[in-house]
Amino acid sequence: MNFNSKLPNVGTTIFTIMSALANEHKAINLSQGFPNYPSSQKLNDLVTKAMNTGYNQYAPMAGNLDLRLAIAHKYELLYKSSYHPEKEITVTAGATQAIYTIISAFVRPNDEVIIFKPAYDCYQPAIELNGGKTIPVQLSAPNYSVNWDEVASKISPKTKMIIINSPHNPSGTIWSKDDMLQLQKITENTNIIVLSDEVYEHIVFDDAQHQSACLFSDLKQRSFITASFGKTFHNTGWKIGYCCAPEALMTEFRKVHQFNVFSVHHPSQKGIADYMQDAETYLGLNTFFQRKRDLFLNLISESRFKFQPSQGTYFQVLDYSEITDEYDVDFAKRLTKEFKIASIPLSVFNEKDKDDKVLRFCFAKTDETLLKAAEVLKHI
To answer: How far is CA 17 from the centre of its chain?
Structure first.
C-alpha cells in the first residue's frame, strides 16, 4: 500500500528512547518527567471511593462539575481570576490532549504558529498535522531569555497563535511579569490566540510568583491555559488535565473535544475534586519540590557540571561543556550505557538540533534515588 506520511520527519520521541535505554542498561532514570514515588494514599482512596459510589459511567463532556468548581476556586484563590465552571473550564485527558485539541480547533492550512525553542515536543507535530507552519524563536542556554523584538518581527498577517510555556520544560526557567506584559503588548489589537502551557504552575522556587496568562486582562481574553493534575499530584499515568479560556474560545474547543475524546476517566475526576477541597494539596508543592532541587544541587555541587538553579518545574539543566565536547545526544547515551544514569539532551527540542552542551535531569525522585544519582554525577 502506498501513502504519504503526514509527519515524515517524526520518529520515536527522545523520552521513549532514553527510558528504553535506561531500562536496558539498568540505569538510574532521571530522563522522563515522572515521579518514582507514589501519589497520595488519600487521593487514591478518594478515587476508589468514587468507583464504589457510582462514578463509573461517562462524565459530562466538559468534565465532572465538582472538579470544574474546584478548578474555578483555585483560580480565584491563587490569581483572583474568574473562570465560569460550566462555560470556561473543560477537563481533558492530560494537558497534551488539551494542547492538541486547541490547535486542531483553530489552526488551518498555512496558518503560522510561533513557538519558543527548546519546545516541548508535542507542539510542532500538532501544528503540522493541522496544516499549519511552525515559526520558531530560538532561545539559548543558560538564561533562555526572550528577545521580544525578534518575536515581534516574526508576527505576520498569517500568525494565528503563539504558544508559551512557563515554568518552562525543558530549561527550568520562568517568565517574568515583564515578559508577559511584552507578550500582551505585541498581541494587542490582533486576532492572535495565545496557548499558555502552565502544567508546572505549582512548581516555582525561591519565592518567585508564577505569572499566569490569566493575570493580564488583555492576554486572558485571547488565551487558553492548559494544566495537568498528573504533574501536580504525582500520578502522570492517570492522564487528567484541563484547560481554561473565555467562553467564545471554549465553545470552539468543545466542538472538537466532544469528538476527539468526549470525556475522561470519571472516578479520577471525582476523586481529584474531593482531594482539592484542601488547598494545601497544591499550595505546598513549591516547598516540596524546592527541597528536592536543593538536595540534588547540593549533592552535585562539587561535580564538573555547571548549572544555574532551576527556577521552576522539576527539571534541572546541567552544562557539561567542561567535561566533553560530545554532541549532547551522544553524551546522554554514553552516560546511560557506561555510567548508568539517564538524562534528556536538549538539542532535540531546538531548531536545527542546536547543541548548547546541556542535559536535563528530573529531580522528582525519592531522596534515595537522588543520592545515588549524585554519587554517579560527581565521578563523571
So the answer is: 19
Minimal CA–CA distance to 39: which of 349, 328, 299, 275?
275
Architecture category of domain 41-281 in CATH: 3-Layer(aba) Sandwich (3.40)
Predicted pLDDT of residue 11: 87
- Our CA angle for 356, 358, 361, nearest 5°, is 155
Kind of pairing between the strands at 241-244 and 89-92: antiparallel
Q: Give me the percent of the chain exceeding a pLDDT of 90.
A: 98
| Predicted TM-score of the model (pTM) | 0.97
Report the first-to-last Cα separation within the chain, whole angstroms: 49
Listed in sequence order, the DSSP H helices in 53-108 are 65-79, 94-106
Alpha carbons within 13 A on the beta-carbon side of 227: 24
Domains 14-32+284-377 and 41-281 share a fold: no
Query: Would you tell me which CATH number, out of the four given (3.40.50.720, 3.90.70.10, 3.90.1150.10, 3.50.50.60), belongs to the domain 14-32+284-377?
Result: 3.90.1150.10
d(CA 215, CA 59): 30
Pairing, β 344-345 against β 358-362: antiparallel
- The closest alpha carbon to 228, from 347, 328, 92, 130, belongs to 92
Peptide bond into 157 cis (omega under 30): no
Strands (E), the chain: 28-29, 89-92, 112-117, 133-138, 159-165, 193-197, 223-228, 241-244, 315-319, 341-342, 344-345, 358-362
Specify the pairing of strand 315-319 against strand 358-362: antiparallel
Instruction: Return the number of other C-beta atoms located less than 10 Å from residue 205's C-beta.
Output: 19
Rounded to 5°, the CA angle 362-367-372 comes to 80
Domain ranges of the chain: 14-32+284-377, 41-281
* Inter-CA distances, 52 with 43, 49, 59, 237, 270, Å: 14, 5, 15, 21, 12
User: What pLDDT, in 10s, does the model give residues 12-46?
Assistant: 899 999 999 999 999 999 998 989 999 999 999 99
C-alpha cell at 252: 470552539
- All cell numbers assigned to 1: 500500500
